[in-house]
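Give me structure tokens for this 73-residue protein.
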Amino acid sequence: MKIFKLPKLAEGSSDGSFRLGREELGSEAVYMLYTRLRPGEAPRKVSPDADAEEIIFVIKGNVRVKCSKMDFI
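Here you go.
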């Protein structure tokens, strides 16, 4: 088992995000994007891989998600 300290990994990137993908997980079937948004921060556009499903977890606070013509809060 490998433990990923995602907040620390994300701190090292220019946009505060870290993607667990093929290199880290050893699989092309799944990936995870960890991002921390601060209050008032500008929106970010995330485009999943082709034919990928998305699951969004909000640990604290609220987030607005726009997908095609649908809008979720």
